[in-house]
Amino acid sequence: MPSANQTEAWVAAKAASTVIQVEDLHKYYELGETRVHALRGVSLEIQRGEFLAIMGASGSGKSTFMNILGCLDRPSSGQYLLEGIDVSRHDKGALALIRNQKLGFVFQGFNLLARTTALENTELPTLYTKIDKAERQKRAAEALAMVGLADRAQHFPSQMSGGQQQRVAVARALVNHPSILLADEPTGNLDSRTSVEIMEILQNLNDKGLTIVLVTHEHDIAQFAKRVLVFRDGKIRKDEPTPHCPRAAEVLKTLPTLED
Predict the structure, then answer these.
(1) List of residues 6+ apart from 97 with CB closer than 8 A
(2) Global pTM?
(3) Domain 48-74+91-252 classified CATH 3.40.50.2000?
């Protein structure tokens, strides 16, 4: 039987490795006289270094859950611990600071500024920090190199393909060295090969220890995650590891190269 000190050490280690913990989350929306119960008692732990995919039909609660994880919304009740900090009741200012320091976001739309270079687009989140200009540019250049776009730093969005623009969006999400990357349908606007290329980048980032939470409606994309959650009617109906998680780099070798 473990000693009290051993038990305390185990609990402390588990707490340190748990990056997200939600307990009995509920979310209600008032639509006129109708009350919508979007989340119905969701509880979940995500460990540091996990790659998690969230699936579910429209209205299942997955987008509401993602918004709460991203500190874009607050639960009606329940607790959300982000790296041990209870953010459930933080005000908007505090949530904005957490988003900037701890979270990186990638969306279906690339959301790049049209008249701004890839380097400048990547640099944008750092403008809300206290780091100096030289460090901002250094971080942006490093982030672009991580997604294979070091040679496109001075290109504008109109000079890049959809896949390259999404790579810039991933670099922008990485520039503040987040604890978690939240990706909401990041391949939704991309062709099949480019989608797998983006998943290759995400897998490589996860290999380096980055925790990733991905929302997708595509089973072919979800299979690249190590764990898959399925939402239905505001609850988690399935939570399973991916039994044979393919490597995107290997899948790419089997796909034809698309011609312009």
Answers:
(1) none
(2) 0.89
(3) no
